[in-house]
Design brief:
This protein has helices at residues 3-7, 18-25, 28-36, 44-48, 55-67, 90-99, 101-124; strands at 42-43, 71-76, 79-84. It is mainly alpha-helical and 125 residues long. It has a single domain (3-124), classed as Arc Repressor Mutant, subunit A (Orthogonal Bundle). The chain has a 3-stranded antiparallel sheet with strand order 1-3-2.
Length: 125
């Protein structure tokens, strides 16, 4: 194992391709961290208060999410503020769309049909 591989957190390759993103999303704690920072940035300590794991474990998860391209980090003095990079999910969307085009089209059709029905109901009232 190379020195670079030995220093890398287990479970996610360096880089931000769909494989790294999917591996990062596989952990429920990391998904919860992303939910916490999806609409506004939070400091690592604020994120840690939502979990029953050590600060070190939270930091390790945050580094892994950042390495996968899912988080951006901004320093403010000694604090590190994290926020979701929604564009990093695009490669995963592309992969899923390639694997599941018919299901996505059916879902789109159902949603559009539901919108039409609600509009018709409003018009008949």
């Amino acid at each position: 194992m190379s020195r670079t591989q030995a220093n890398r957190p287990s479970g996610v390759e360096a880089g931000s391709g769909p494989d790294a993103v999917l591996r990062a999303l596989a952990d429920p704690q990391r998904r919860r961290m992303l939910q916490l920072v999806r609409s506004h940035e939070l400091a690592a300590g604020q994120i840690a208060t939502h979990f029953d794991i050590t600060q070190q474990a939270v930091s390790q998860h945050l580094r892994l999410l950042q390495r996968a391209g899912l988080l951006s980090e901004r320093r403010e003095g000694a604090r590190r503020l994290y926020s979701l990079r929604p564009e990093s999910l695009e490669p995963v969307r592309t992969v899923l769309a390639e694997l599941w085009p018919d299901a996505l089209m059916r879902l789109k059709h159902v949603v559009e049909q539901g919108k039409r029905q609600k509009q018709e109901e409003r018009m008949t009232r």
